[in-house]
Write a structure and sequence with these properties.
The protein is of the alpha+beta class. The protein is built from 2 helices and 3 strands. The chain has a 3-stranded antiparallel β-sheet with strand order 2-1-3.
Length: about 70
């Protein structure tokens, strides 16, 4: 549930074209100056970000259940 860039709990998880998942803020900052996946180094075909609603709901439920 942590973003591999910030190592913080994701609040707005997104997936990029390589299949990697990041928090929107972190990956947007990365993509501002890079055109690769920060984990794999693969050059991105597109910089589109797709919201992962199911993961977002899972994180919200996790936070509620753990009193965070």
């Amino acid at each position: 549930l942590k973003c591999p860039l910030s190592l913080e709990l994701m609040t707005d998880p997104v997936i990029i074209c390589t299949g990697s998942v990041y928090d929107r803020i972190g990956i947007k900052q990365w993509l501002h100056t890079n055109d690769t996946d920060p984990i794999t180094g693969i050059k991105l075909q597109t910089k589109n970000l797709i919201t992962l609603r199911v993961l977002h709901m899972y994180i919200d439920n996790f936070l509620k259940e753990n009193g965070v």
